[in-house]
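Forum > Structural Biology > Help requests

Title: Can anyone predict the 3D structure of YidC/Oxa1 family membrane protein insertase?

Hi all, first post here. I have the sequence for YidC/Oxa1 family membrane protein insertase but no way to get a structure on my laptop. I'd be grateful if someone could post the structure tokens.
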Amino acid sequence: MNFLNDLLGQLFKFVYETVESLGLGSAHISNYAYALIVMGLFYKVITIPMTIQSARNAEKQRKMQPELDKIKQKYGYDQQIYQKKMMEFQKENNMMQGCGGSCLTFIIQMVIIFALYKVIQNPKTYIHNYDKISRVFFWIPDLALADPTGYLLPLINSVSQLGFQYFNRNNMGAGNAQMNSMQTMMYIMPVMFFFIFRTLPAGLVLYWTVGNFIEIIIRGAGLLIGKIKARG
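Reply #1:
Sure, ran it for you. Structure tokens for YidC/Oxa1 family membrane protein insertase below:
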């Protein structure tokens, strides 16, 4: 983890210095804020392959749903047999089981957020004259501290998470209690994160929120393209 912390810290240093050299900072959005936004964008760019794979799995899930329903109707009387038949069908059709790429993306995101938290806790290691730089982001005077309102940015993040889950819900699979439970958890998590993020540095919340909005754009664009192709 120390290696990842240092790697992420060096990347953040590079991004910050690049943003600073471009003079993007303003009275409302500091270079520090821009650097965090770029970090969120960078993460989503490198995980696009997993996002695309999840979207493809969702489309395959939609097309295979009638067959999945038949399996449930035929073997639903015995949960053990049903689970076995479902797994066999998914394996035969190269379908991701469980939440697949979505869960993997989330796990990677959590690892990065913990590492970024360490970087924000020890910023002087990576940013020269850290005490003198601006860390403002609109109503937040210092992104190294929690949102002074106590709720606004965490609330925006939770809403963006719900938007992301709207596009992501089909990736979870369907037809059994385990999948339904996982889907329920995905809608509970934004509420949990709201309370967790209220006390964490606003910079972390900004990073996560940016990622959510980018994910929404990617998923929404994919859905739109899919509908256009279907009509064509």
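Residues 202-231 form the longest helix (30 residues). The radius of gyration is 21 Å.
Shout if anything looks off.
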